[in-house]
From TrEMBL:
<dbReference type="Pfam" id="PF01321">
    <property type="entry name" value="Creatinase_N"/>
</dbReference>
<dbReference type="InterPro" id="IPR036005">
    <property type="entry name" value="Creatinase/aminopeptidase-like"/>
</dbReference>
<dbReference type="GO" id="GO:0004177">
    <property type="term" value="F:aminopeptidase activity"/>
</dbReference>
<dbReference type="InterPro" id="IPR050659">
    <property type="entry name" value="Peptidase_M24B"/>
</dbReference>
<keyword id="KW-0031">Aminopeptidase</keyword>
<feature type="domain" description="Creatinase N-terminal">
    <location>
        <begin position="8"/>
        <end position="138"/>
    </location>
</feature>
<dbReference type="InterPro" id="IPR000994">
    <property type="entry name" value="Pept_M24"/>
</dbReference>
<dbReference type="InterPro" id="IPR000587">
    <property type="entry name" value="Creatinase_N"/>
</dbReference>
<protein>
    <submittedName>
        <fullName>Aminopeptidase P family protein</fullName>
    </submittedName>
</protein>
<keyword id="KW-0378">Hydrolase</keyword>
<dbReference type="InterPro" id="IPR029149">
    <property type="entry name" value="Creatin/AminoP/Spt16_N"/>
</dbReference>
<feature type="domain" description="Peptidase M24">
    <location>
        <begin position="146"/>
        <end position="348"/>
    </location>
</feature>
<dbReference type="Pfam" id="PF00557">
    <property type="entry name" value="Peptidase_M24"/>
</dbReference>
<keyword id="KW-0645">Protease</keyword>
């Protein structure tokens, strides 16, 4: 992987040079990990005119949650544990002879930005913007392999839960069990806090588990994901507990399923982000569910669970091949519950079989 990280840093350096910056400091954790292989807590990466350095507050551990630094990259540990790595990086850049420095202004606080100016007053600071995020947008096959494994782990954990007795157990208990199973199957940990909603809580994308117990006839909606080598998957499914689904449950489920299928089928290279959103959203709009729909139908995944692109009504841009995204429409009926169906996919051209579905747990409306 060393040559991969070096190539990523070289692409960013070329952009900095073209923008008139002799050096750059990357401080956003996911961006640091993308370029350096690891992002220990508080770390920053210096792309210097003479050498690239990973600055850390303490020696990297190599644990899965922070990654293992690129062997070809120099690691510089600050002499005091409470030091600011970005500020130290600016000082080192000035010492290497840089006269200009690009920084991630969208990540730095005003206080840190002032500290950078203070420690190296002769450096001209420029905004790196979201240059690294744009580099991260299209994944290479090694990254997609990690995402594929993360999705498999989430599928396994969810599949095992569906084979257990659910009636009488609380949302909180089920969420904790799912997260334990993720780790049991090789995940670094959950990709995000697991959501389990039953009955009136089902179908809410932002629901945090409560002590409500699963009851016969409930909708049960689950949204979980696994982190594997830093890469994150997402899957959401909805089931009915114990009995044959009621007519209204079948109708609502079929509607959300149709919307999700329309969104998945719209994932082709060159499709506008908002076109994908519209494909799924229009199915729900036509059925009268305009109000209360999620602000986005899907989003990118990778080293973060919610990254570009955003599949939203006002989103600008077009999909490229090898971009992993979620498609996750949902409808929640206050006082009754709802349905959410969520998959992680990779955009692929039709010649390669179309979008690659990473999360494969059945989307049939099962009565558990």
């Amino acid at each position: 992987m060393s040559e991969v990280y070096a190539a990523r840093r070289a692409r960013l350096r070329d952009q900095c040079t073209a923008g008139g910056s002799a050096a750059a400091v990357v401080s956003r954790p996911a961006n640091v990990r993308y370029l350096a292989g690891a992002a220990p807590r508080g770390a920053a990466l210096l792309l210097g005119p003479r050498a690239d350095l990973l600055l850390c507050r303490s020696h990297p551990t190599g644990e899965p949650d922070e990654g293992r630094p690129d062997d070809a990259l120099q690691v510089h540990v600050l002499p005091t544990a409470g030091g600011d790595t970005a500020v130290a990086a600016a000082d080192l850049a000035a010492g290497q002879g840089a006269d200009s420095l690009a920084v991630e202004e969208h990540h730095l606080t005003v206080v840190r930005h002032r500290a950078l100016n203070s420690v190296a007053p002769r450096l001209r600071l420029a905004d790196l913007g979201c240059a690294v995020e744009q580099l991260r947008l299209i994944k290479d096959e090694e990254e997609i392999s990690c995402l594929r494994i993360a999705a498999e782990i989430a599928d396994q954990a969810l599949g095992e839960l569906l084979e257990s007795i659910l009636v009488g157990r609380t949302e909180r208990h089920l969420a904790l069990e799912l997260e334990r199973r993720l780790v049991d199957h090789g995940a670094d940990g959950p990709a995000f806090p697991t959501s389990v909603g039953t009955g009136v809580n089902s179908g809410r994308g932002t629901h945090r588990p409560t002590d409500r117990r699963v009851e016969e006839g409930d909708f049960l909606s689950v949204c979980l994901g696994a982190a594997y080598r830093g890469y994150r998957s997402e899957i959401g499914r909805t089931f009915v507990i114990g009995t044959t689904p009621a007519d209204w449950q079948i109708e609502l489920y079929d509607l959300v399923f149709a919307a999700q299928r329309a969104g998945r089928e719209a994932l082709v290279p060159g499709a506008e982000y908002r076109e994908v959103d519209h494909a799924a959203r229009s199915v729900l709009d036509a059925a009268g569910y305009t109000d209360g729909l999620p602000p986005v139908i899907g989003h990118g995944v990778g080293l973060e669970i919610d990254e570009d692109p955003q599949l939203a009504p006002g989103a600008m841009g077009k999909l490229d091949a090898c971009v992993p995204v979620t498609v996750e429409p949902g409808v929640h009926l206050p006082g009754r519950g709802g349905v959410r169906i969520d998959d992680t996919l990779v955009v692929r051209p039709e010649a390669d079989g179309g979008p690659e579905l990473l999360t494969i747990t059945t989307k049939e409306l099962l009565a558990l």
